[in-house]
Amino acid sequence: MNATAVIRKKKKWWQSYAIWFILPAFVLYTLFVMIPTFNSIYLSFTSWDGISENVRYIGFDNFKEIWESPRVHNALTNTIIVAVSLVLLENVVALVLAILVDQVRWFRNLFRSIFYFPVLMSGIIMGFIWMIILNYNFGVVNQLLDMTGLSAIKTDWLGNPDFALLSIILSTVWKASGYYMIIYLAGLQGIPQELLEAASIDGAGKWKQFRHVTFPLLAGATTVCVMLSMINSLKLFDQIAVMTNGGPGFATETLTYIIYKVAFGEGRQGFGTALAIVLFILILIISLIQIRLLRKREVEM
Amino acid sequence: MGQKAKKPITSGQIILFVVTLLIAILFAFPIFFNIMSAFKSNSEILRDAIAFPEGFYTESFKYLLTKTEYPKAMLNSAVLTLGSIAAMIVIIPMAAYAIERTNRKWTNAVYIFFLFGMMIPFQVYMIPLFKQLKTMGLFGNLGGPILIYIAGSVGFGVLLYTSFLKGVPREIEESAEIDGCTRIGIFWRIVFPLLGPVTASMVVLQGLGIWNDFLMPMLVLPSGQTKTMIVELFYYVGEFSSRWDMIFAGTTMSLVPVLIAFLSLQKYFVKGVSSGAVKG
């Protein structure tokens, strides 16, 4: 009798405090994330210009335009090129860096810090530095090419449509790989030394040890890194803003960049939100695949 | 480590070291180049980008700090970063604590609702948000971005805190409750200090993200007195397109706080990354 009374009293009390503890986060999150997200879905069916009071409903016209517009197709192609090459290059570079840091005998922490530091830089600053390094007249790259007698392959790295996207991709690999390196490094350090010793006693060389012991055991880290790098590559924005502004022409316009340009540069916010919904669906699909894969792994383990 | 040091040095180790060193030089060069160029005059930079500075040229720093809005922008960035973080580490752990400890149907629903936010990138809701801030009167002052940053970190923060709270035993809280301590008191005096590692990760990860953020502050604080450092630098790239010395000095000044924070809090930066890896 007494005990149940205590429990009932306790429950009521718990309930009231929980509401007050959750409320601030709930209000802010609803107001500044969820409401604008739902507004985005609504606006994607309108031809709103961002200023006028009357918002005209136009059905699926924006999505039809996305389906047909060559500029959007170009942006989607660029997004896919950026995503695929960043996922591959960042993960390969990150894994190599992690192995080097793990194996090197001296200055291990210093090397780890050096590889990691670019991650901490703003995309704007990093983009500016690379813009100057790649500058046609005064840049370090062309100066080095001149010094080594390779002037023939000199080009305006950011002004030439054939190289602009590549320049952005490679400088982003420089910036972001250190992040994934840390994740791989944690994976490498979790591998029991005995396994590698056993493989080596069985006559496996360094490559075979890596291929058949280390790499399979890094599968968890790899899944996380691949998914993270893919989502981050879809969100790439700062570097493009400072290095090329989407140009030359539309050569470096990606999905995130076209959303910004269409909405705030060209005053077509309805169309911009429709593009944003496409981005959202892409990221949602990737996130769901990631959750699936990670769950499956947990079951297997 | 200690065991390894006794082994003799092999040629393989030397090759490995040299390879690592070369790659490290490649990685460090752009940052070194940036800091070096900040101490060169503009004509020196244009004459020979790779050469070392001839003297210790500090005019660009002096100009930026006395003749431009840059000091104000630095202050804005600092206020924005510290203000958002302070509010985050009050609001988010409280919500996470209530969700984890109550564990009822409705709190689980709230939890799922919060987690959903992790999948929504800023670009998806930035266009309506822009208009919304204007109608709410939060456009062009630092209050708007602070609220947006807190709201944007709820999903990720609640995930981090709740998963950590699962490992924190309830016994102390229960005995404190019997002693008549209020729930707020229990949380702040007993639970919050135990959440130190998560709070450190949050401070480091979110602080860095806000300090470096560009798109949102550019949209919401486009001009005037409230521009942040990164936005100010972005405009310099356009305005001072031929005055690289100014921009190098500006980027150096923005990198220094990051460098100091990194060197003094290295452990937390590395830990923060591995906790950030859970984020989808």
From TrEMBL, chain A:
<feature type="transmembrane region" description="Helical">
    <location>
        <begin position="215"/>
        <end position="234"/>
    </location>
</feature>
<feature type="transmembrane region" description="Helical">
    <location>
        <begin position="271"/>
        <end position="291"/>
    </location>
</feature>
<keyword id="KW-1003">Cell membrane</keyword>
<comment type="similarity">
    <text>Belongs to the binding-protein-dependent transport system permease family.</text>
</comment>
<feature type="transmembrane region" description="Helical">
    <location>
        <begin position="113"/>
        <end position="133"/>
    </location>
</feature>
<dbReference type="GO" id="GO:0005886">
    <property type="term" value="C:plasma membrane"/>
</dbReference>
<feature type="transmembrane region" description="Helical">
    <location>
        <begin position="163"/>
        <end position="186"/>
    </location>
</feature>
<protein>
    <recommendedName>
        <fullName>ABC transmembrane type-1 domain-containing protein</fullName>
    </recommendedName>
</protein>
<dbReference type="Pfam" id="PF00528">
    <property type="entry name" value="BPD_transp_1"/>
</dbReference>
<dbReference type="InterPro" id="IPR000515">
    <property type="entry name" value="MetI-like"/>
</dbReference>
<feature type="domain" description="ABC transmembrane type-1">
    <location>
        <begin position="76"/>
        <end position="290"/>
    </location>
</feature>
<keyword id="KW-0812">Transmembrane</keyword>
<dbReference type="InterPro" id="IPR035906">
    <property type="entry name" value="MetI-like_sf"/>
</dbReference>
<feature type="transmembrane region" description="Helical">
    <location>
        <begin position="80"/>
        <end position="101"/>
    </location>
</feature>
<keyword id="KW-1133">Transmembrane helix</keyword>
<keyword id="KW-0472">Membrane</keyword>
<feature type="transmembrane region" description="Helical">
    <location>
        <begin position="17"/>
        <end position="38"/>
    </location>
</feature>
<dbReference type="InterPro" id="IPR051393">
    <property type="entry name" value="ABC_transporter_permease"/>
</dbReference>
<dbReference type="GO" id="GO:0055085">
    <property type="term" value="P:transmembrane transport"/>
</dbReference>
<keyword id="KW-0813">Transport</keyword>
From TrEMBL, chain B:
<keyword id="KW-1003">Cell membrane</keyword>
<feature type="transmembrane region" description="Helical">
    <location>
        <begin position="246"/>
        <end position="265"/>
    </location>
</feature>
<keyword id="KW-1133">Transmembrane helix</keyword>
<dbReference type="InterPro" id="IPR035906">
    <property type="entry name" value="MetI-like_sf"/>
</dbReference>
<feature type="transmembrane region" description="Helical">
    <location>
        <begin position="146"/>
        <end position="165"/>
    </location>
</feature>
<keyword id="KW-0813">Transport</keyword>
<keyword id="KW-0472">Membrane</keyword>
<feature type="transmembrane region" description="Helical">
    <location>
        <begin position="73"/>
        <end position="97"/>
    </location>
</feature>
<protein>
    <recommendedName>
        <fullName>ABC transmembrane type-1 domain-containing protein</fullName>
    </recommendedName>
</protein>
<feature type="transmembrane region" description="Helical">
    <location>
        <begin position="186"/>
        <end position="211"/>
    </location>
</feature>
<dbReference type="GO" id="GO:0055085">
    <property type="term" value="P:transmembrane transport"/>
</dbReference>
<feature type="transmembrane region" description="Helical">
    <location>
        <begin position="109"/>
        <end position="126"/>
    </location>
</feature>
<comment type="similarity">
    <text>Belongs to the binding-protein-dependent transport system permease family.</text>
</comment>
<dbReference type="InterPro" id="IPR000515">
    <property type="entry name" value="MetI-like"/>
</dbReference>
<dbReference type="Pfam" id="PF00528">
    <property type="entry name" value="BPD_transp_1"/>
</dbReference>
<feature type="transmembrane region" description="Helical">
    <location>
        <begin position="12"/>
        <end position="33"/>
    </location>
</feature>
<dbReference type="GO" id="GO:0005886">
    <property type="term" value="C:plasma membrane"/>
</dbReference>
<keyword id="KW-0812">Transmembrane</keyword>
<feature type="domain" description="ABC transmembrane type-1">
    <location>
        <begin position="74"/>
        <end position="265"/>
    </location>
</feature>
